[in-house]
Amino acid sequence: MTDEQAMGMWMGLFIGDAAGVPYEFMPPSGDGSYKFFSFGGVHNASVGEWSDDGAMALAIASAYISEKRFCASTIQKNFVNWLKRGTFGTREGVPAWDVGMTVLGALNRVKDFDFPYQSSTDPMTSGNGCIMRLAPCIIWNRNNLSAAIGESVAQALLTHGSSECITYTAALAHELWEGRPLPQYDKLRDRPIRNTGYIADTYASAWHSVLKTDNFEDAISDAINRGGDADTVGAVTGMIAGRSREVPIEYFEAVKQSTTIKLCGQHCAALRDV
Fold first, then answer.
1. Which CATH number is correct for 3-24+126-273, 1.10.4080.10, 3.30.470.20, 3.40.640.10, 1.10.3210.10?
2. Where are the domains of the chain?
3. pLDDT of residue 115
4. CA angle, 104 then 109 then 114, to 5°
């Protein structure tokens, strides 16, 4: 994975998240009218504002940078600081304002950071929050496939413990590392296309948008125009498309805190190469 591919995946996550936030919980547009970058929506988002997808990815990247290794306790501490204080988010001092129920349940169960794994194994908790934040694990382990998959699953288990979450996290991590869809996961993509918070739907929907288009912009546009969980489907689509396609820099520069985000991604990649 080249530096450009790593940063494309990293920037793509934030672009897709910010592009989708204004359309979260909206019905499908039907006519492609959901555009980059709007504002408002249920979260009253400002232009270029990203949500939990970006914040939790920054929390993981920050843990890699500070510990110079995968550290579940530090990642979970960062997650809780985001939840309670808005650390790593876009609204300084404001607690997390877009939190999935599975993530919220797991973080509220954390009482001691020496025991960070508090996720539920209930199949009904198979949300998409564990795959929306994978980019740091892939970037940090871009020269080691087994570590990329293993640490992607390890971070997922901090909040999502169902067997489906493990399966889809491992699949997407493998494909992000390789930079292409892999045939052994074709069955995971073979399902109705809809933007829900269910991990299987998000995975299939994101790949659908990538595979039906030939450039980054069109992939994100297709994803967010299905409404629903538009920010997370946008973020996952952005990671996949950004990994293998050119990311228009003007889109990334329209994202809030783009300079800080870019430096964090570059620092994460550079430290791992030392």
1. 1.10.4080.10
2. 3-24+126-273
3. 81
4. 120
Return the number of other C-beta atoms located less than 10 Å from residue 274's C-beta.
5
**Residue 103 is encoded by which pair of tokens?**
């993530």
Helix (H, G, I), strand (E, B) or coil at 244: helix
- Tell me the backbone φ, ψ of residue 188, rounded to 5 degrees: -70, -25
Residue 40 forms beta bridges with which residues? Answer: 45
**154 CB-near residues (< 8 Å, 6+ apart):** 70, 72
Mean pLDDT to the nearest integer, 77-99: 92
Residues 37/78, Cβ–Cβ less than 8 Å: no
Q: How many residues does the chain have?
A: 274
The share of the chain scoring above pLDDT 70, in percent, equals 99
Strands (E), the chain: none
Give me the helices (H) in 126-246, please. 135-140, 145-156, 163-178, 186-189, 199-211, 216-224, 230-244
Band (116; pLDDT cuts 50, 70, 90) = confident
pLDDT at 274: 47
User: Position of tokens 């067997």?
Assistant: 163
Q: For 190-211, what is the mean pLDDT?
A: 96
Q: Which two tokens stand for residue 138?
A: 């892939």
Give, as one character, the DSSP assignment of residue 228: S
Alpha-carbon distance 216 to 4, whole Å? Answer: 14
Residue 106 structure tokens: 């797991």
pTM score of the predicted model: 0.94
CB 26, CB 41: distance < 8 Å: yes
Cβ(228)–Cβ(198) below 8 Å: no
DSSP code, position 28: P
Look-up: residue for tokens 């876009």? Answer: 90
**N- to C-terminal Cα distance for the chain?**
16
